[in-house]
Amino acid sequence: MSDKSKESPPPNHCGHDDMYCKVLSAFLALSSYLIFQIIDITSRHYAVAFKIPIHNIGIFFDKLFSLRVLLILAGNMIEYGIFHAAGADRDTGDGDKNKGKRVRRYIAVTAFAGLFCVRVWFLAGLYFSKELGYHAYVSLSFEGFPFGISDSAFMPLIAQYMSVVAIMFNMTRIFIFVVQFILDRIWYDNPLLMIKIQAWICVLFTGCSVFLWYYFNFVIKDHTFKPPKIENAKEPEIKKQEYEEIEINDAESIFDMLIDLCFSPDEKKEKEKQKVNQQSKKSDCNALCQDCKKRVGKDGIFTLISPLMMYWCLNPYMTFLFPGTVPYALLKRDKCHRINMFIPIFDNLGTLTLFFIDNFGKLFPCWSWHYDLFLLLLVPFPIIFVFALMAMHSRVSAARKIISNRTRVGAMTLVMYFSNSFCTPLHYIGMAKYSFRGNPYGFTIQGLQKVIGGIARSFWAKVSVGYSVTRISLGYHLPKFRPNHRMSKSNLGWYIFRQTFRKTWADFKGDFVLDMKKYL
User: Fold this and answer.
1) Taking the CA of residue 55 as centre, how many other CA atoms within 13 Å lie in the half-sphere pointing to its CB?
2) Neighbours of 212 (CB within 10 A)
3) How many other C-beta atoms lie within 10 A of the C-beta of residue 320?
4) All domains of the chain, ordered by start, with CATH?
5) Contact indicator for 36, 72 with CB cutoff of 8 Å
């Protein structure tokens, strides 16, 4: 028994410094996020190819995004529920915390296969559908469901490679940017052909990823999912020793009993609590967690405050403003395309910086006050939000100059993405590192944040649709922004607020019947 327990850990199948697994994780992330990035960067071509009315471009993408987010949320919740039903990362007394992970890998591979099937459906529709805009809306929205299941399982299974995944989320934009730049030079006047080429790339990459994801979970990482048999075999022996130690330590002499008489009942209770806390602290977290406590002076639930703030303070602005309000409500379609082509560059500045810090520095495994400073990057968002609304609804000259000005609208969009390039990866890395360090209920908290965050994201996406519909109905749209009402400013503000949420609710109900055709 003792010889087996002294066996060396299994060899690292990922190669030196986990290089193989990092490359595999990077490719899986690339293929997983392809559609999401294609829509962002080439939205102009989608609008032209599907003949979307110019005033409804923002509404089309807001509705597509909001329904997609709802289905992603549904996928997240189903995966999270199955994970918990299977045991999650709880120790039920047998020392096995891998029950949930073992089920999660089956879900992850199955969902990735479902993602591949939906993308094949989207590609087929580009050749055979007579209503391209409606087909794209339905297929790309429903692609969110298997993506939500897959993504919810994918993040925890590759938690230790999160910095690589974070950079690949944005490097996917660079990849699409390069492909789109080449296609624009050749077939700019044939947007449907360019969309078909992108769809083929997406399908081929996803098909390869299904097999690679299976290989990653069931071959390379298979040993990490097995129950701890050796520890279970030793458990009775260990427990027996612990009980013997407790009996010896608790055996009180007459002198000890006399000392105990000096303590009040409250002091005795406090003393017992301290003993219990000391015993529980031994198993609170693994060696990485203990190392962070030595180096940074803290680890635990409080290290999640800043990563969570980066999500909850940024997401409402980003979801509400882009792309329906900034840039499409303020700038013509073709000018927006040029701005969208620059987004990948700005969206990678922060991610690349964090990637190098994580892989070539020693501080990132622990969360420290240095990363709290990145919260300052959230300051531009409320300013951009106010100026965007003032440009459309007021007569302030400084704000009105933003309309149809590519430089100003471009600056607003790219500043948003520059801040996003730091805060969003830091949120995911902070959450993943917390889980991987072995903090209590790390993966449970990570999954719960994904579900609650998805609910908030879907809400703000719907509010964005409601606002866009209300704004356009009142005449606040390109090219002139001429209102068709005679309400006072106070009445107008209250009317827009009230109608926004009414339209939000109406659009939410309309999603169940896929009511996009009236905007096409």
Assistant:
1) 15
2) 18
3) 21
4) 14-227+292-519 (1.20.1250.20), 230-261 (no CATH)
5) no
Phi-psi domain of 376 (left: phi exceeds 0; alpha: psi -120 through 50; beta: other): alpha
Query: Which tens digit of pLDDT belongs to each residue from 43-76?
Result: 888 888 888 888 788 888 888 888 888 899 899 8
Provide DSSP, 73-104.
HHHHHHHHHHHHHTTTT---SSS---HHHHHH
pTM: 0.70
How many other C-beta atoms can be found within 10 angstroms of the C-beta atom of residue 457?
21
Half-sphere exposure (Cβ direction) of 402: Cα atoms closer than 13 Å: 27
The two structure tokens encoding residue 388: 């965007």
| C-beta neighbour count of 310 within 10 angstroms | 26
CB atoms within 10 A of CB 247: 9
Let me know: does 378 contact 423? Beta carbons within 8 Å. yes
Given a contact cutoff of 8 angstroms between Cβ atoms, the answer to whether 54 and 333 are in contact is yes
137 CB-contact burial (10 Å; exposed 0-12 / middle 13-18 / buried 19+): buried
pLDDT in tens, 402-449: 999 999 999 999 999 999 989 988 888 788 777 666 666 667 777 788
Could you tell me if 255 and 143 are in contact, meaning their C-beta atoms sit under 8 angstroms apart? Answer: no
Specify burial of residue 316 (Cβ count, 10 A radius: 0-12, 13-18, 19+). Answer: middle
Which amino acid appears at position 414 of this protein?
Answer: L
Structure tokens at 262: 């000096």
Residue 312's Cβ-count burial label (10 Å; 0-12, 13-18, 19+) is: middle
Q: How far is CA 20 from the centre of its chain?
A: 24
CA of residue 144 relative to chain centroid, distance: 13
Q: Which DSSP symbol is given to 11?
A: P
